[in-house]
Amino acid sequence: KAKKKSSYEIETLTHWLLKQEQNGVIDSELTIVLSSISTACKQIASLVQRANISNLTGVQGAVNIQGEDQKKLDVISNEVFSSCLKSSGRTGIIASEEEDVPVAVEESFSGNYVVVFDPLDGSSNIDAAVSTGSIFGVYSPNDECLADIGDNPTLDQVTQRCVVGVCQPGNNLLAAGYCMYSSSVIFVITVGEGVYVFTLDPMYGEFVLTSEKVTIPRSGKIYSFNEGNYQMWDDKLKKYMDGLKDPGTSGKPYSARYIGSLVGDFHRTMLYGGIYGYPGDAKNKNGKLRLLYECAPMSFIVEQAGGKGSDGRQRVLDILPTEIHQRIPLYIGSVEEVDKVEKFLA
Ligand code: P6P
């Protein structure tokens, strides 16, 4: 007889991960990697929520490989993520938005998973306390990429092998997720069997399961683009955008919602439906978002929720990265909405 679930029985992320392991969905090494990622997110959540108090707003005074001013919290969040992953002992290679090249993790003694992450996406919003987020993806260990590298490999040799180990298509993702630092701290994860949402209970610092097998509506009349770039878009995209504002037979045009923080805009799109887009434009033909640690993890999640992630022509998860910080245009959200923009762009 199935044990009756008491109404007070709450499922924490730790419970949930152990259940996935017991059910053979993930192995014990990956369980530890994902648990260490959730620990990093809790630490970043507390740093973000106290940023103004502990004087951690503002810039670090350095510029990252993206040519963006690194915020103090960008650097600290990257260190938090890296050290949590290294101390897990199960991570072989990490690739971060904040690191010029992938890093081979010395401390790894088993598992050797490849973890890609943007430790604090949307950090330009921190000073105004607008939602930000951490995004991550986990690939299978790529042992052969560091095998027979010889006794004293040069840094270049190791780096080259790591780039090979990291550059995998999103189809290879074993797990992906994000943590949104907003009015509440929301941890979203998929290990390939649906999307699960956990909310941080600050009373005892645990992520508690609040939604399971989340599905995105097939359509939605919310669009999330930075229309400030309209003049630089190609005519097909302008036509699509103009059409969204036409009340048409329904008498109601689409609504525009744009936070300027991918995790916030994506999470709302996944729950309410609609489309988020960061198109290429005349100045940046590949747009702004990075394939490896922004577009691919978000596309894995949205597909697991029954949605679609495209670069305007093809499925994001089919794209093989050729370099770790490569950018692609992104159109992601409800199937019918992404289909619609693809038709205009064809
Ligand atoms: P723009 C934040 O810098 C980010 O990478 C995403 O989180 C966000 O969606 C986008 O860039 C905002 O870019 O050009 O509209 O300010």
Structural class: alpha+beta
- Strands, count: 15
Distance between the termini: 56 Å
Shape: globular
Strand content: 15-25%
Subunit structure: Homotetramer.
Domain Fructose-1-6-bisphosphatase class 1 C-terminal: 216-345
Protein name: Fructose-1,6-bisphosphatase, chloroplastic
EC number: 3.1.3.11
What features would you highlight for this structure?
eight-stranded mixed sheet; magnesium; 15 strands; metal ion binding; alpha+beta; 9 helices; 346 residues
Structural overview:
Homotetramer. It is an enzyme of class 3 (hydrolase). One of its GO terms (biological process) is fructose metabolic process. Residues 216-345 form the Fructose-1-6-bisphosphatase class 1 C-terminal domain. Its cofactor is Mg(2+). With 346 residues, the chain is α+β, with helices and mostly antiparallel strands. The protein has helices spanning 13-22, 28-49, 72-88, 143-146, 155-166, 235-244, 262-272, 291-304, 335-345; strands at 59-63, 69-71, 91-96, 103-104, 113-121, 132-139, 175-181, 185-190, 195-201, 206-211, 222-224, 255-256, 275-278, 308-310, 330-333. Strands 4-3-5-6-7-8-9-10 form an eight-stranded mixed beta sheet, sandwiched between helices. It has a five-stranded mixed beta sheet with strand order 12-11-13-15-14, sandwiched between helices. A two-stranded antiparallel ribbon has the order 1-2. A hairpin with a 6-residue loop joins strand 3 and strand 4 (103-104). Helix 1 packs antiparallel against helix 2 (28-49). The longest helix is centred in the N-terminal third of the chain and has 22 residues, at 28-49. The radius of gyration is 20 Å and the shape is globular. The model has no long low-confidence stretch (mean pLDDT 94).
